UniProtKB/TrEMBL annotation:
It comes from Microbispora catharanthi. It comes from the Bacteria. PROSITE patterns: PROKAR_LIPOPROTEIN (PS51257). SUPFAM superfamilies: NAD(P)-linked oxidoreductase. One of its GO terms (cellular component) is cytoplasm. This is Aldo/keto reductase. One of its GO terms (molecular function) is oxidoreductase activity. Residues 16-310 form the NADP-dependent oxidoreductase domain.
C-alpha cells in the first residue's frame, strides 16, 4: 500500500482509507460479522485510517469499531471521528452543533464507545451556523493539549473557513466530497487552499453514491435516494449513466472496473493537488480488496486527458444534494470577493 503524509504536520497514511458509515447508518445496515471482517481485511491489507462519526448509527459505528479492533490493531490504526450532527430518536438529523462544551462532551462519549484514551483526528462534520469556527477549533485545540486528540480536521468547509480554522490550530486534513462526478473542490478554491497551507484532503463519495461503480442498476419504481440526491432523479440518472458508460472502454484498457478507474483517478489527483486520500465505503471484505487494487493503477497524463474528455467537469446532471442539504454546506457557498467583504480594494 502506498502511503503519503496527510498534510504538512499530519500522520503518514495509506492512499486509501476505509469509510465505516455504511456499516451502521444506511437503509440496510451491514451484517455485523461482515462489517468486522471488512475492517480486519482493510487493516491486514495496509489501510491505516478508519473514518467514522459519533452520529453514525447514533454511536453504533464507534462501538462496532471498538469490537472489531484486535489486540495490537489500535497501535497501527488511525481513527478519524466527526462530531456535531444532532439526531432525534427516529434517526432524523435535527441540527448541527459546534459549541466548545458540546465538542468536549461529544469526545468524552466517543472515547468511551471506542474504548481508548485518544482519537487521532477529530473534526466537526459541518460548520455550525451559530458558533464561530474559531470557538469550535479552539476547543479541539485544548483537547490536543490535554492529549485526548492528536490532530484536528475539518469537513465540508470552504476556503475562508479553512483559513480561519488553520489560524487557530494547524489543520491536518479537510474531508470533502470529491470524485469524477463532484469536482467542485477544483474550482471553488478548496484544493488550492489546502495545498497552499499544507493541509491534506480526505476525499469521500469517490464512487458518487454508487453511480461510479459501473454496476448500478435502476430499480423498478425509481431510486428512493432521488429525493435527497438529485443525480438519481429519473431525468438526471439517464444522463449520468451515459457518462459512466463512456468510462468503460478506458477501464477495460487497464483491465480494471469503472469503480477502480474512478478511485485511481482520485488518488492520482494528489500528484499535483497535494496529498489526497480516497475514503472508500465498504460493507464486505471483497469490496475492500477491489478498492485497494485501484491504489496500484498508474494513470498517465494521456489517461487523465481521456478521462476528462469522457466526463468533463460540470457534465454531471443534478447537484450533489437537494437544496435544503446544500444550504448546510459551507463548502458550496460562493466565496465573497475581498472587495465586497471590506468595501475597498485589497
Amino acid at each position: 500500500m502506498h502511503t503519503r503524509p496527510l498534510g504538512t504536520g499530519g500522520p503518514q497514511v495509506a492512499s486509501v482509507a476505509l469509510g465505516c458509515a455504511g456499516m451502521s447508518d444506511h437503509t440496510a445496515p451491514a451484517d455485523e460479522a461482515d462489517a468486522i471482517a471488512t475492517i480486519h481485511t482493510a487493516l491486514d491489507s495496509g489501510v491505516t485510517l478508519l473514518d467514522t462519526a459519533d452520529f453514525y448509527g447514533m454511536g453504533h459505528n464507534e462501538d462496532l469499531i471498538r469490537r472489531a479492533l484486535r489486540a495490537g490493531d489500535r497501535d497501527k490504526v488511525l481513527l478519524s471521528v466527526k462530531f456535531g450532527g444532532l439526531r432525534g430518536p427516529d434517526g432524523a438529523f435535527v441540527g448541527i452543533e459546534g459549541r466548545p462544551a458540546h465538542v468536549k462532551n461529544a469526545l468524552a462519549y466517543s472515547l468511551r464507545r471506542l474504548g481508548g484514551d485518544h482519537v487521532d483526528i477529530y473534526r466537526p462534520a459541518r460548520l455550525a451556523p451559530d458558533t464561530p469556527i474559531e470557538d469550535t477549533i479552539g476547543a479541539i485545540s485544548e483537547l490536543v493539549q490535554a492529549g485526548y486528540v492528536r490532530h484536528v480536521g475539518l469537513s465540508e468547509v470552504g476556503p475562508e473557513t479553512i483559513r480561519r480554522a488553520h489560524a487557530v490550530h494547524p489543520i491536518c486534513d479537510v474531508q470533502i466530497e470529491y470524485s469524477l462526478f463532484s469536482r467542485g473542490p477544483e474550482t471553488n478554491g478548496i484544493l488550492d487552499t489546502c495545498r497552499e497551507l499544507g493541509i491534506g484532503v480526505t476525499a469521500y463519495g469517490v464512487l458518487a453514491h454508487g453511480l461510479l461503480t459501473g454496476a448500478y442498476r435502476r430499480p423498478a419504481g425509481g431510486d428512493p435516494r432521488a429525493h435527497w440526491l438529485p443525480r438519481f432523479h429519473p431525468g438526471n440518472l439517464a444522463a449520468n449513466l451515459t457518462l459512466v458508460d463512456r468510462l468503460r472502454p478506458l477501464a477495460d484498457a487497464h483491465g480494471i472496473s469503472v469503480a477502480q478507474l474512478a478511485t485511481a483517478w482520485v488518488i492520482t489527483q494528489g500528484r499535483e493537488r497535494g496529498a489526497i486520500v480516497a475514503v472508500l465505503g465498504a460493507r464486505r471484505p471483497h469490496r475492500v480488496e477491489e478498492a485497494l487494487a485501484a491504489a496500484d493503477v498508474a494513470l498517465t497524463d494521456t489517461d487523465l486527458r481521456a478521462i476528462d474528455e469522457a466526463v468533463p467537469a460540470g457534465a454531471v446532471a443534478g447537484t450533489r444534494y437537494a437544496a435544503p442539504l446544500m444550504a448546510l454546506l459551507d463548502s458550496e457557498r460562493t466565496p465573497v470577493p475581498s472587495t465586497e467583504r471590506t468595501g475597498r480594494e485589497s
